[in-house]
Structures are given as structure tokens and as C-alpha cells.
Amino acid sequence: MKKKILVLSVIIFAFALLCGCQYYGKAPQSDFKFDKISGVLPSGFKITADGGSVAALNENYPTESDNITFTSGLADSVENYSREKLDAKYQQTIAGFQGSTFFEKKQQDGFDIVIYKFDVDHKGVQMKTTQCVVFCADRINVVTFTSVSGKYDEAFQACLESLKVNPAA
Questions:
Q1: CATH number for position 144
Q2: Which of 22, 134, 137, 139 has the greatest number of C-beta atoms within 10 Å?
Q3: Which residues of the chain have pLDDT under 50?
């Protein structure tokens, strides 16, 4: 079951490429940098690069499979992203896709950003996923937050809000 959740997480951030903390009231702590983005990880999360994948796993992983993944892909345009397009793509490609709950396009530090939230029911395991796609001139960076337990939702939101784009990177 845990392996299936990990596999599904890998599949989810792979699809992001195709698309073009223990918290407990503590403030997030532990800076990270991935390609052109940086931010603050939730308390208790550590970056790991295993088999080419970059993820932040909590100290209780794999017992608690909540995670953050980091990917980058080929350059794309924010105009190619809409809630409807992502819903249609994920409905076809992610088993158990339950639909989106949030979609926003915004600008930060002069870069276009898409925030997309959706739910997945993978064989009875409920997951809430938030993807942040940052559109850089030569590539996209994608940060995907996967919540299984719900324990880290506030910490994930704080991490999302801490993200900065570093154009010189």
C-alpha cells in the first residue's frame, strides 16, 4: 500500500512534466533551493534525491506518506494551463482522480505561476494534492504537495506561501 502511494506520487509529478513537517503549530524551518525556486520546508521534512527524483519526506516516512516533490520540465506557456484542461488531462491519466478543488494563475517575482489543487482516491486512500507550476523562460519548475494524513496541510500551505523565484539561478 505504501509503495503504491509512492508510485502514485511519482506518477503525479511525472504528469506535471507532461503538462508543459511535522507541523503541530510550529513554524516551518529548513530552507531549500531547487533549480530556480526556494522556500522553507515544514519542520521535520528533509530533502532526498533517490533514483533521480527529488522529494521532501517527513521524519515518519514511510509510515506517514505525506510528501513534497520537485520536478522541472521543458519550457511551457501559462496560456496552456486552465482548470478545465488540467481536469480533463488528469481525469484520463490519474486513476482515482476525483476532480479539482482550486485553480489560480498569478504572478510572483515577475514569473507566471499556476496553483492547482485536486483530490485522488487511490484504492481507498484519499489524497489531496497541490501543484505549483512556475514558468521560467527556459523551463518550468513544479512543486507538488501530496497530503495523505491531513496532518501537514497547514505546514504545506506555509511552505507554498514561502516559495520564491530566483531568476539568476
A1: 3.40.1000.10
A2: 134
A3: 1-28
The 10 Å Cβ neighbour count of residue 76 is 18
pLDDT of residue 21: 33
Q: Which grid coordinates are listed for 136?
A: 521560467
Structural domain including 90 reads: 2-165
Q: What confidence score (pLDDT) does residue 169 get?
A: 63
Determine the residue type at 117: K
33 contacts 169 by C-beta, under 8 angstroms: yes
Among 26, 12, 20, 29, smallest CA distance to 130 is for 12
Q: Which amino acid is at 152?
A: Y
| Residue (of 34, 47, 14, 6) closest to 134 by Cα position | 34
CA angle (37 as vertex; 75, 9 as ends), nearest 5 = 75
Q: Quote the number of domains for the chain.
A: 1
Contact assessment for residue 128 and residue 16, using Cβ atoms and an 8 Å cutoff? no
Q: Which helix (H) or strand (E) holds 110?
A: none
Q: How far apart are CA 58 and CA 97, in angstroms?
A: 24
Q: Write out 126-154 in H/E/C secondary structure.
A: EEEEEEEEEECCCEEEEEEEEECCCCCHH
Look at the block and give the residue holding cell 506555509: 158
